[in-house]
Amino acid sequence: MSIETTHPQSRSTPQAAGALRHVEVVAGVIRDARGRVLLARRTEGRDLAGLWEFPGGKHEPGETAEAALARELHEELGIDVEIGAPLINVPQRYPDKRLRLDVRNIAAWHGHARGREGQALVWVPPHKLASYAMPPADRPVVAALLQPAHYLVTPPPDDSDEAWLGRLEQALANGVRRVQLRAPGLDAERWRSLVARAAHACRHSGAEALVNGDAALALDLGIGLHLPARQLQALSARPLPADLPLAASCHCVDDLQAAQALGCDFAVLGTLMPTPSHPGMAGIGWEAFAAMRESVSLPIYAIGGMDAGDVDDARQHGGQGIAAIRGLWPSS
Question: Which CATH architecture has domain 150-324?
Answer without folding.
Answer: Alpha-Beta Barrel (3.20)
